[in-house]
Amino acid sequence: MNDPVISAVATVACDTPPGVYPVERSGPGGPPKGAKGEIWVTVKVADIDESERTACPGKVAALPPEQPEERWPAGDSWPQSPWDVRTFRPGEKGTLTGSDADLGYGDTLTSPGFTEEAVMSGAKAVLKGAVVVRCDARPGLFEVRWVGRDEVWARYRVAPIDEVARRACRDQAAKPAGGQPAGRGAWLVGAAAALAAAGVGTYVLFRRRRGTSV
């Protein structure tokens, strides 16, 4: 949306005869049945000898998988799309924010890496829900989903930490706040204090409506 350059990766099939081929483009889901897309550019496929053609399948198999993750600037609100993947440390907290055109009051978002579901609430067309990454969350890619819908709202990556930092996260999460038993509020306050001391920032997570921002 904010970057004038977008890209996609394609691999020429090993059995493609030499010649000039059109590259067509169309909208999401492809062109209507029986129709062709708009020719965007042409590609010239060179001829290769038999030894190169024999080695071609092995080269294709060794290619790294295409990465669908989008690289938005760190200062931009998150998520800009379901593939706007940001990185968080265990114990880090944030606020999922979205338009009431996308979410409803009381809707919940959940992820295996969160301590609790995020319950969306707010006013003036902006809904928010607090989230905290679990202290025991292991490194890897996680999805954020609507409860009751088979739809991915966002994705994030949990960064690796050592066992010392993981124990510190658990200890801080277990501490009571204001003389009260440690609960969700105490967890959030304690984790925030620990992360601030460690120089870890707090993220505000925000998703834009398609085509417009809120």
Report on the architecture of this protein.
With 214 residues, this protein is α+β, with helices and mostly antiparallel strands. 18% of the residues lie in helices and 27% in strands. The chain has three helices and eleven strands, in the order ββαββββββββααβ. The strands form three sheets. Strands 3-10-9-5-6 form a five-stranded mixed β-sheet, with no helix packed on it. The chain has a four-stranded mixed β-sheet with strand order 7-8-4-11. A two-stranded antiparallel ribbon has the order 1-2. A hairpin with a 2-residue loop joins β7 (121-123) and β8 (126-132). α2 (163-174) packs across α3 (184-197). Residues 179-214 have low confidence and may be disordered.
List the helices and strands and how they pair.
Layout: E1 19-25, E2 38-45, H1 50-61, E3 86-88, E4 93-99, E5 108-110, E6 118-119, E7 121-123, E8 126-132, E9 140-146, E10 152-158, H2 163-174, H3 184-197, E11 203-206
Parallel strand pairs: 3-10, 4-11
Antiparallel strand pairs: 1-2, 4-8, 5-6, 5-9, 7-8, 9-10
Helix pairs in contact: 2-3
Q: Which short descriptors sum up this protein?
A:
4-stranded mixed β-sheet, 214 residues, single chain, disordered C terminus, 5-stranded mixed β-sheet, alpha+beta
Short description:
The chain is an alpha+beta fold. It has helices at 50-61, 163-174, 184-197; strands spanning 19-25, 38-45, 86-88, 93-99, 108-110, 118-119, 121-123, 126-132, 140-146, 152-158, 203-206.
